[in-house]
Amino acid sequence: MLTKATTGRAKRPAKPITLVGVDVYIITENGIPQFDDYGAFKIEFVSNRGTKVWPGYVSEDLMLVNWYRCRFMATKTVTDADVDTFLAALSKKWKWSAAQKLWNYGDEAGFSKAY
Amino acid sequence: MGKHVITMLPGEGTGPEICEAVRRVIDHSGVEIVWEYEDIGLDCLDKYGTLLPEKTIKSIAKNKIAIKGPTTTPVGTGHKSANVTLRKLFDLYANVRPAKLIPVLKRPWDQIDILTFRENTEDSYAAIEHMVSDEVAQCLKVITWPGSVRIAEFAFKWAKANGRKKIQCVHKANIMKMTDGLFLEAFREVAKKYPEIEAGDIIVDNCCMQLVRNPAQFDCLVLPNLYGDILSDLCAGLVGGLGFAPGANIGDNCSIFEAVHGSAPKYAGMKKVNPSAVLLSGVMMLRWIGENAAAEKIEKGMNKVLAEAKTLTYDAGGTASTDEYADAIIRAMDTV
User: Fold this and answer.
1) Which chain B residue lies closest to A10 (C-alpha atoms)?
2) Which of A25, A47, A57, A59 to mutate to test the interface with B (most CBs of B within 10 A)?
């Protein structure tokens, strides 16, 4: 019979974690945001409701809301301090609701791409 | 009416043989269609390096109407779903799936005629996922006010135009108070504009139980993306399975009609798969472009073949091939 003694907390084998970028959720009423050069981080794509709206094809029918996921990938080896500096610089121009660090776990990306 | 130019996406697996049978039936209905064949799906990877080639996107963007055979979506890893990409790319926000009893298929119910309106672009399908630690994965469920309002508007407009009486919003707002709460609030706001249609709501788990116990009580259901995906398959199962389940993905300027089922690669080339779901998707497409006479002719022909029960595919209890079944419908169309 299954008892508490025979069940345990499952542990997933750990993998080395590497910081490779940041997803920043930006709120703006002025359309698809365009970004300055932020040194350690470079914009890779902007999505709206999960659909990529920059770069590439965007349907003229696409409904946009005022909340954009902006993926910034590191241009060099970065640390948490680089993320702090980057977000401080970004905050001078943009209002953002959240930021999510992007990590690779071993060779695998721990984050999804946009459609 | 004049000629229509429509993008045909045969897909992969059994898709090409199904779509060819469907094209023959639709062409026999008298409607004038110029078919533009384009590639989509796993077979495109070697040729184009993508599931959805640029040429295919351009054709759909130009023609605004497409009919699509099944494609395969890799599970867990690999490429993004071509289906979801198309819905997002062209903002096909309304997924409409009718579930109506098929005469020949015996079911324990006398009457089922349910329309599901699934919001097709948001919810957990926004594909915003992160491994936030080495043992925790997170998926953002995105529900927006304008996205929720427009699917509710679409459902009420469709219901009104087609004489439907009742719409229920399916949700889990008792637990997900912000996301499903917003969806429900938008539905209630839109419902005020349509007093002639009875509007209500039901919690998704109760809805599943009620659908299995007493499906005849339901008319139209409006659902966020994930619940819509699951419950529309449940409804398809109630009336005869995915072989008879059509679907439409509709946006403000572009629409893609497709069956609900997958590509069944193990049957590819055997010409035994039931083409009814893609054919009924074609019937929805013909009605959408105003070709009602052609749509009715095909539907009557198909119903006659099903009622006679002489030429049925294996899933409906027969031994007919895809082509034999399509030929029987074509012959029946000349007599109805």
Assistant:
1) B135
2) A59
Q: How far is Cα B24 from Cα B19, in angstroms, rounded to an integer?
A: 9
Written as one letter, the residue type at B14 is T
Where do the domains of chain B lie?
1-94+246-336, 108-239
Q: What number is the ipTM of this complex? A: 0.92
Domain interval for residue A74: 22-109
The yes-or-no answer on residue B229 being catalytic is yes
Per the annotation, the verdict on B327 as an active-site residue is no
Please determine, for residue B42, whether its predicted confidence score (pLDDT) is greater than 90: no
Would the CB atoms of B91 and A61 count as touching at under 8 Å? yes
**What confidence score (pLDDT) does residue A42 get?**
95
Lowest mean pLDDT among A7-16, B255-264, B288-297: A7-16
Asked if the C-beta of B150 comes within 8 angstroms of chain A's C-beta atoms, the answer is: yes
**Considering only CB atoms, which chain A residues are within 8 Å of B89?**
51, 57, 59, 115
B32 in contact with A at a CB cutoff of 8 Å?
Answer: no
The domain B108-239 having CATH identifier 3.40.630.10: the answer here is: no
Architecture in CATH for domain B1-94+246-336: 3-Layer(aba) Sandwich (3.40)
Please check whether residue A88 lies inside any domain of the structure: yes
Other beta carbons within 10 angstroms of residue A13's beta carbon come to: 7
| CATH number of the structural domain spanning residue A46 | 3.30.70.1570
Q: Structurally, how many domains does chain A consist of?
A: 1
Listed range (B195-204, B234-243, B286-295) with the worst mean pLDDT = B234-243
Tell me the mean pLDDT in the region A7-31. 92
State whether A14 and B134 contact (CB < 8 Å).
yes
Residue-wise pLDDT tens digits, B45-75: 888 888 899 999 999 999 999 999 998 876 6
pLDDT at B84: 83
| B147 in reach of chain A (CB within 8 A) | yes
CA atoms within 13 Å, Cβ hemisphere of B19: 26
Q: Distance between CA atoms of B285 and B68, rounded to whole angstroms?
A: 11
- Shortest distance between the Cα of A49 and any Cα of chain B, in A, equals 6
In this structure, which long-range contacts are made by residues B233-237, counting pairs with CB atoms below 8 Å and at least 24 apart in sequence?
B233/B260, B234/B208, B235/B97, B235/B99, B235/B112, B235/B114, B235/B116, B235/B211, B236/B97, B236/B99, B236/B260
Chain A residue with the nearest C-alpha to that of B146: A65
